[in-house]
Write a structure and sequence with these properties.
The protein is an alpha+beta fold. It is about 25% helix and about 25% strand. It contains 22 helices and 38 strands. The chain has a 7-stranded mixed sheet with strand order 26-29-30-34-33-32-31, with helices on both faces. A 5-stranded antiparallel sheet has the order 5-4-3-6-9, with no helix packed on it.
C-alpha cells in the first residue's frame, strides 16, 4: 500500500516530519517498509510560464522555437517538440537546475543548433500523469503571473509511505484508514470521513434489476445509475494522487473507481449501462467451463466455486477480481483511436452503472489463486471487507462523478443484502488490562485511545463497554484484542520487562540455549553467514542426497496440504537447505560461500510413530577460497575437508567439547574424504566433502565441504565436561623433542596421538603430527612413518633429561603394545 503524504494530510496532518511519522506508525503496528519521494526536486526551478511566440525551428520540422515569459527581465528561449504549443498559452516550465522525476538535473541545451533555456512540460515529465504527446496547458492558472511557483498550481512532489499491511487490517488498505491510525498515534485532528455527505438517495432504481442468487458469497450488492456522463481526462490533482499511489490514470470514470478504492478501501466497478444486456445483473456461481473475457483481454475459464456477474447475454465480470471487456466503460485511449477521436467519448459512454459490492473473502482468494489473476480489488476483498464499506465507496464515488464528469445521479440506490451485521460490544476490564500487559493503563487513557480509533466507548462498573466499528469487525472479536489496541497506541515500549506469571519462570537463558548461541557466535566468528532455511523439503531430496532405501532419514513426515511440491515433507537433515543456499549464492556471483544453519530436524525413528523427534542440529558448508586473498597470497587454496574441519574445531573448542574424528562414510559425502565426529565414543554427526554427484545436482562444480552435528548431543557433551578449570601459566622452560613412529598404514594418526598422550602423562604439554613419510624399501610395505613434535613441561620444576627419557620410553612401549608400532631410528 502506497500512501502519498500529501493526500494523507488532507484528513490528518500531524506536526511531524515524514520519517518521524513513519516511525510513529511503525511503533503502533502499521509497518512502514520505506519512505520514497515521488515527483520532482528543486521546486523553485519549476514556474508558470506564458508563451509569447511559437515558431518553427529552422533546422527541424517537428520542433518549435518559443519565447516564454517566465517572470524575468528577458523572455526565455525554449525549444519544444510538442505539436500543441501555441502563443498565448499558460504552461508549466522547468528552468535549468530543476530535478526531474528520474533524478536528472536539467541543464541548458542546444537542440539542432539553437539554445534551449529550459523545458515546457508534459504531464508525465512531472509525474502527475502518463500523457507525453502534448504539453500541459494550464487554463486554470491564467490568473497567475509568469514566474509564479508551479507548485501553487500543480501537486509536483510528495513523500510516499510504502506500507506493509497485515491481512487482519484491510481497513488500513485505505488512505482514510491510515489517517485514522495517524490520528490515534499522534493525536493530530482527524477530518470527518469523506463519505459523510452522500448526494445519492435510497430507494429502487427505475429500469434496473439486480438479483443475488448466493448471498453467502455476496453479502451485499449496491449500485447507482449516473446519466449524462462525459468521459474525459481527470484533473491534475486526481492524476497526481493516483500516480503517487502507484496507479495509472486512464479516464475520469475509471480514475474515480481507483481513487475511491484507494481512499476508502472499497473497490468499485463501473459498467457502461447501455452495454448491460437486458438492463439486469445477476450474481451467481459460474458454470463449469464457462468463460469470461476480462479487461486485460484474456479469456478466463471458470469453475462452479467462482462467482460471476452476468446480464441477459452471459457473464460480464468475475466478481471481486476483474471486470469484463463486454461492459467496459469507454476510455480516453480507446476513444481517441476510434473514428471521430475524443469527440466520440460522449457518444460512447453516457450512462454508467457504478457497482460497489461485498464478497466472501476466502472465495475471492481461492478464485484469484485458481485463475492466477491478482488485482487491487481481489487483494482487498480476500481480506474480508465489511458490507457497510460498500456504501462508503458509493457516497464518495457519487460526489466525484457529479463533480468530475458532469453526471446526474438517478434517483434511488440498488442495495441487496445491506446494511450488515449488528455491531458487537465487548467488556474491557481494568484488571484484565493490567494483568495481561503487566502494567496498569488508566481507564481514561484506554477510552481516549479507543475513541480515537472510532470504537464506541461507555463506562462500566469494572471498566469499559466497547462497541466495535464495522471496519474492525473481522479483527477485534474479544477482550484481548481491545487490550492489544490500547497497548500498541499507548506505546509497547512503555511496558516494563516482566516475566510470565507462572511457576518456574526464569529470566535467563537455559544452559542449552546459551550453548546454541555460542555455537552460532563461533561459526560467525569463523567467517560463516547464518541462514534460515525452510523446514519443508521436496519429496525427492533423499534421492538427490543418494540416501539408500533403508536409511532412517528417508522416513519423513509428509504434509497433507503442502504449500508447493518443493515443500512436501519435513526435513530430516539441514543439508538440503544449506545446499540450496550455496547454489543461490553461487548463481548470483558469490565466488566464496560460507554458510551455516541451526534449527530443528524431524526424525521418524520408527515407522509407526505418531510424532517425530525434533532434535536441534547445526550444519555448515564452505566452497570457494578457504581464506581471504592477500597481496602475498592472491590465490589461496580452495575449501576442502580440512577447511571444514577447521570450522568444526572452532565450534567445538569454543563449546569446550573434546572430540575425535574417524573415517566413516555417508552416501552424500566423497569416499575417502569423510569422517564421523565423536565425543566420548558417541557419534555427534558427520564431516567431509560433498560427493561430486550430489554437488552437481545443485549445479555446483567446485568442492563443497562441511559438517552437520546433533546440537542436542553437543550440548550434552558440553554440560558433561563441567566447568573448565584454569591453571597458572608455567614459568619453567619446556623441553621439545621430535619422535618418528612407524605404524601400519591403516592406523589413524588420531589413535597414535591418543596413545602417546595417555602414556606420557601430565608432563606432555603438547603433541602434533608434522610430517608423514612412506618408503616400502626403508620402512616396509604397508607402513607409514609419522613425525611427532612433542613438548614436555613441568608446572613446579625444570624437567631433567632423565624424566623426559623415561616418558619417551613409556610412549615407545605403549606404541609397541597397543598399535604394533615402533620408533624409527634415523
Amino acid at each position: 500500500m502506497r500512501a502519498p503524504v500529501e493526500w494523507l494530510h488532507e484528513y490528518c496532518h500531524p506536526p511531524l516530519e515524514t520519517r518521524a511519522l513513519a516511525d510513529r506508525l511503525a511503533m503502533t503496528g502499521t509497518e512502514v517498509e520505506r519512505v520514497e519521494r515521488h515527483g520532482v526536486g528543486a521546486l523553485e526551478r519549476f514556474v508558470v510560464g506564458r508563451v509569447l511566440e511559437a515558431g518553427p525551428h529552422p533546422n527541424a520540422d517537428r520542433l518549435s522555437v518559443c519565447r516564454v515569459d517566465v517572470g524575468e527581465d528577458e523572455p526565455a528561449q525554449i525549444v519544444c517538440g510538442a505539436p500543441n504549443v501555441r502563443a498565448g498559452q499558460t504552461v508549466a516550465v522547468a528552468r535549468p537546475g530543476a530535478v526531474m522525476p528520474d533524478g536528472t538535473k536539467l541543464k541548458k541545451a542546444k537542440l539542432r543548433g539553437l539554445e534551449s533555456d529550459g523545458m515546457i512540460l508534459a504531464e508525465d515529465e512531472v509525474a502527475i500523469g502518463t500523457e507525453h504527446d502534448g504539453i500541459m496547458v494550464l487554463s486554470h492558472a491564467d490568473g497567475l503571473p509568469p514566474g509564479a511557483p508551479l507548485a501553487d498550481v500543480l501537486p509536483l512532489a510528495t513523500d510516499v509511505l510504502e506500507l506493509e499491511i497485515t491481512p487482519n487490517r484491510p481497513d488500513c488498505l485505505a488512505i482514510y484508514g491510515i489517517a485514522r491510525e495517524a490520528h490515534a498515534a499522534t493525536g493530530a485532528p482527524l477530518a470527518p470521513p469523506p463519505w459523510q455527505q452522500d448526494p445519492g438517495t435510497p430507494g429502487s432504481v427505475q429500469g434496473i434489476n439486480v438479483e443475488v442468487e448466493d448471498p453467502d458469497l455476496c453479502p451485499r450488492f449496491t449500485a447507482r445509475v449516473f446519466e449524462n456522463v462525459t468521459i474525459g481526462p481527470s484533473p491534475p490533482w486526481l492524476k497526481a494522487r493516483l500516480m503517487a499511489a502507484g496507479q495509472r490514470p486512464i479516464s475520469n470514470v475509471v480514475d474515480i473507481t481507483n481513487y475511491v478504492m484507494l481512499l476508502t478501501g472499497q473497490p468499485l466497478h463501473a459498467f457502461d449501462l447501455d452495454r448491460v444486456a437486458g438492463q439486469r445483473l445477476t450474481v451467481r456461481r459460474a458454470r463449469p467451463g464457462e468463460g469470461v473475457e476480462t479487461l486485460d483481454g484474456q479469456t478466463r475459464i471458470l469453475d462452479e466455486e467462482m462467482v460471476v456477474i452476468d446480464d441477459a447475454e452471459g457473464p460480464t465480470s468475475i466478481a471481486g477480481v476483474m471486470g469484463g471487456a463486454r461492459s467496459e466503460v469507454g476510455t480516453l485511449r480507446a476513444l481517441a483511436s476510434s473514428p471521430g477521436g475524443e469527440h466520440r467519448g460522449a457518444e460512447e459512454t453516457t450512462r454508467v452503472l457504478m457497482e460497489a459490492a461485498n464478497w466472501n473473502g476466502p472465495n475471492i482468494h481461492r478464485t484469484s489463486l485458481a485463475l492466477g489473476l491478482r488485482s487491487e480489488a481481489s487483494s482487498r476483498f480476500e481480506k474480508q471487507l465489511q458490507p457497510e464499506q460498500a456504501m462508503d465507496g458509493q457516497a464518495v464515488a457519487t460526489q466525484l462523478m457529479i463533480e468530475l464528469t458532469g453526471a446526474t445521479v438517478a434517483p434511488g440506490t440498488i442495495d441487496v443484502g445491506g446494511p450488515g451485521p449488528a455491531p458487537i460490544t465487548i467488556r474491557l476490564r481494568d484488571a484484565r488490562v493490567s494483568g495481561l500487559l503487566g502494567a496498569p493503563v488508566a481507564r481514561e487513557r484506554s477510552a481516549e485511545i479507543l475513541r480515537a480509533l472510532e470504537f464506541g466507548v461507555a463506562e462500566a462498573d469494572d471498566g469499559l463497554d466497547v462497541t466495535v466499528p464495522y471496519f474492525r469487525r473481522g479483527d477485534v472479536t474479544r477482550e484481548a484484542d481491545l487490550i492489544e489496541e490500547v497497548a500498541r497506541i499507548d506505546g509497547l515500549d512503555k511496558l516494563p520487562a516482566t516475566l510470565p506469571s507462572r511457576h518456574g519462570a526464569a529470566g535467563r537463558l537455559t544452559p542449552r540455549q546459551r550453548i546454541r548461541r555460542r555455537a552460532a557466535d563461533a561459526l560467525t566468528a569463523h567467517g560463516a553467514h547464518e541462514i534460515v532455511g525452510w523446514s519443508f523439503v521436496a519429496l525427492d531430496l533423499a534421492d538427490r542426497l543418494r540416501l539408500p532405501a533403508d536409511d532412517a532419514r528417508r522416513r519423513a513426515v509428509v504434509l497433507q496440504n503442502p504449500m508447493s511440491a518443493d515443500q512436501s515433507q519435513l526435513r530430516t537433515t539441514l543439508l538440503g537447505s544449506l545446499l540450496d543456499a550455496v547454489r543461490y549464492n553461487r548463481a548470483h556471483g558469490a565466488g566464496t560461500v560460507r554458510v551455516f544453519e541451526s534449527g530443528a530436524v524431524y526424525l521418524v525413528e520408527e515407522p509407526d510413530e505418531l510424532l517425530p523427534r525434533e532434535p536441534q542440529h547445526v550444519g555448515a558448508l564452505l566452497t570457494g577460497a578457504a581464506r581471504t586473498a592477500t597481496w602475498r597470497g592472491p590465490d589461496p587454496r580452495k575449501a576442502d575437508f580440512y577447511a571444514a574441519k577447521g570450522a568444526l574445531t572452532a565450534l567445538l573448542e569454543t563449546l569446550r567439547v573434546p572430540f575425535t574424528v574417524e573415517a566413516a562414510s555417508e552416501p552424500f559425502l566423497h569416499p575417502g574424504r569423510s569422517a564421523a565426529v565423536l565425543a566420548e565414543g558417541e557419534r555427534l554427526g558427520w564431516l567431509g566433502e560433498i560427493h561430486p554427484l550430489v554437488a552437481d545436482g545443485w549445479d555446483v562444480s567446485e568442492v563443497i565441504a562441511g559438517f552437520e552435528l546433533d546440537l542436542d548431543l553437543v550440548a550434552d557433551a558440553a554440560i558433561a565436561a563441567g566447568v573448565p578449570m584454569y591453571h597458572e601459566v608455567a614459568s619453567f622452560p619446556e623441553v621439545r623433542e621430535d619422535l618418528a613412529v612407524i605404524v601400519a598404514d591403516d592406523v589413524a594418526a588420531a589413535r597414535v596421538l591418543a596413545v602417546v598422550r595417555r602414556a606420557a602423562g601430565p608432563l606432555l604439554a603438547g603433541a602434533e603430527v608434522f610430517d608423514v613419510y612412506r618408503d616400502p624399501e626403508r620402512i616396509g610395505e604397508g607402513k607409514v612413518s609419522l613425525a611427532l613434535r612433542l613438548t614436555f613441561r613441568g608446572r613446579d620444576r625444570t624437567l631433567t633429561d632423565e624424566e623426559v627419557a623415561e616418558r619417551r620410553a613409556q610412549m615407545t612401549r605403549a606404541l609397541e603394545d597397543e598399535l604394533g608400532g615402533s620408533v624409527r631410528v634415523a
